Every structure is written in C-alpha cells, then in structure tokens.
C-alpha cells in the first residue's frame, strides 16, 4: 500500500510544487552524473583491454579494495577450503 505524502493545511501548494520540482531536478542531475561516470568507466576499461589487461580481474580488484579486509580474508579462506575439497 502506497504511503500518502504528509500534508499540512497551512502549506502553500505552489511552494510544495516548487520544492518537489527542485528535488526531481536534483535526482535528474544525479542520474546524468551516474551516466557520465558509467561512460568514463567504460572508457577506462576499453583502454585497459587495449593495453592487454584483463578487465574482469581489474573489476574484481576494485571490489576487493573497497571491501572489508576481514570479510575478504574469510571469503578467500572458504574458497580455498572448497577448492581443496573438490581436488583443485
């Protein structure tokens, strides 16, 4: 069930509409920024690939560097355990 926006009888609807429009425009700006960032990431990955780097490994490194080191160590330990269990 959708929540109804909170309203107060003393608020001018024109002010609410203007504020809402400002929020929408900010969200649109964020969407444009994300699109620009995504394009830049594609450019960087294309350049890496062109120079012979493995882009999948690079993406994995980015995720690992952003992750909690303890969590990464735990996941690596479990992966090694599983690999050993299946003879790898």
Attribute tags:
88 residues; mainly alpha; 2 domains; elongated; single chain
Describe the structure.
This protein is mainly alpha-helical. The chain folds into 2 domains: 16-53; 54-88. The chain is built from 3 helices and no strands. It is elongated. The termini are far apart.
Describe the secondary structure blueprint for this structure.
Elements: H1 13-50, H2 55-66, H3 69-85
Percent of residues in β-strands: under 5%
Query: How far is the N terminus from the C terminus?
Result: 51 Å
Low-confidence stretches: none
Number of domains: 2
**What helical percentage do the residues reach?**
over 70%
Q: Could you say which overall geometry the principal axes of the C-alpha atoms support?
A: elongated
Pattern of helices and strands: HHH
Largest sheet: none
Radius of gyration: 24 Å
Q: Give the rounded overall mean pLDDT.
A: 92
The tally of helices reads 3
Q: How many E-type strands? A: 0
Structural class: mainly alpha
């Amino acid at each position: 069930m959708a929540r109804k926006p909170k309203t107060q009888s003393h608020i001018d609807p024109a002010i609410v509409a203007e504020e809402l429009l400002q929020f929408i425009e900010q969200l649109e700006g964020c969407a444009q920024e994300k699109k620009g960032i995504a394009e830049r990431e594609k450019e960087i990955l294309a350049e890496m690939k062109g120079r012979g780097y493995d882009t999948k490994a690079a993406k994995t490194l980015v995720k690992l560097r952003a992750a909690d080191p303890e969590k990464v160590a735990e996941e690596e330990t479990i992966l090694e355990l599983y690999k050993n269990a299946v003879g790898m």
